[in-house]
Structures are given as C-alpha cells and as structure tokens.
C-alpha cells in the first residue's frame, strides 16, 4: 500500500508540475497514467470520475485528484493526491510572484506562454473528442439525447449551464433508480 501511495504521489506531482492549461489537460494525462499505463482504473470508471470532478465545485485538477485518489487508495489516497496536485503550482506561483517584474517584460517568456496556449487548445480538443467517443461507444440513445439536448438548450435557447447540469443530475438519478428496480 505504501508503495502504491508513493507511486500515486510521484505521478500526481509529475502531472501537476508539467501540465499547462488547467484541469482538463491534467484529467487527460491522469487517464493516460492511471488507465493506460498503471491499469489502476478502467476507462469507463475514469469517464465517471471525470464527470464527478467536472460537476463538483472547485478546481477540476483538485477534484480529479480527489476522485482518482479515493478510487485508488481511499481517504489516504485523497490526501496524498491532493497534496501532490497542489504542491507544484503553489511552489511555481510563489517563485513567479517573487520574480514577477523580471518575467513581466521578458519577450521569450511572452512567446513561450503564447505557444503554450496553442498546445492547450489542442489538448482540450482531444479531451472533448475522447469523451464524446466514449459516450458514442455506449450506443444508448438516451446518452445521445441528453448530450445533444444539453447542447441545443444552451447554444440556441441560452439556458443556463447550471440548470442544465441540475437537470442532468435529476435525469441520472431517475435513470439509475429505474435500472436498479426494473432492468435487473
């Protein structure tokens, strides 16, 4: 168990240190690390964990660390993965704040950050496509209806995203209750 916690800690520190672009990027890298490389979580579980992390208030990287840590090692896994996730940004931001005046006008740093924005856009695009393909593989018409209905409600009718999320939660609860009682 201790070896697994150290591996979890090291992996989360590494991902958090070298991931630029926010939570959606780190979630993709978590999937590659914990699903594809370590096989600690299967792909369907990871999709569920990402959905939980996105639905909860707060930073998605920390929420992702919480759900993955819990899945891997329970409460101790949560503590280890959250500390490992917040430690690198905390150190980096502390260093940057000390040297902010130097970084602020450095042309090389400016170009580097512009380049990172392009890469982040590509990685987020990959996340969206992979998650959509995961939904399409299920081949359940209800998933398609919810996904496209949510898009249409938000994009065309300007329905607030919070209302859409709450509606999807209610639909998920009702669907789960229905499956447990009638489909078994």
TrEMBL record:
Instruction: Give the domain of life.
Output: Bacteria
What topology in the membrane does the UniProt record assign? Multi-pass membrane protein
Q: What's one Pfam family here?
A: Chromate_transp
Concerning InterPro entries, the annotation shows:
CHR_Transporter, Chromate_transpt
Q: Where are the transmembrane segments?
A: 12-30, 50-68, 75-103, 115-136, 157-178
So what family is this one in? Belongs to the chromate ion transporter (CHR) (TC 2.A.51) family.
Q: Which keywords annotate this record?
A: Cell membrane, Membrane, Transmembrane, Transmembrane helix
Principal cellular location given in the protein's record: membrane
Name of protein: Chromate transporter
User: What compartments host this protein?
Assistant: Cell membrane
């Amino acid at each position: 168990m201790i070896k697994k916690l150290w591996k979890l800690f090291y992996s989360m520190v590494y991902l958090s240190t070298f991931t630029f672009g926010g939570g959606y990027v780190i979630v993709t890298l978590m999937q590659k690390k914990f699903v594809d490389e370590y096989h600690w979580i299967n792909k369907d579980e990871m999709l569920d964990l990402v959905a939980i992390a996105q639905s909860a208030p707060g930073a998605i990287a920390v929420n992702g660390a919480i759900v993955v840590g819990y899945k891997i090692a329970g409460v101790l896994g949560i503590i280890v993965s959250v500390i490992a996730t917040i430690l690198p940004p905390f150190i980096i931001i502390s260093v940057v704040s000390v040297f902010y005046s130097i970084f602020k006008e450095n042309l090389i740093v400016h170009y580097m950050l512009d380049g990172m924005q392009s890469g982040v856009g590509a990685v987020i695009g990959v996340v969206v496509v992979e998650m959509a393909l995961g939904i399409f593989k299920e081949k359940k018409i209800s998933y398609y209806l919810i996904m496209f209905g949510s898009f249409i409600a938000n994009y065309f009718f300007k329905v607030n995203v919070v209302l859409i999320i709450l509606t999807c939660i209610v639909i998920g609860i009702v669907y789960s209750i229905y499956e447990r009682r009638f489909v078994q």
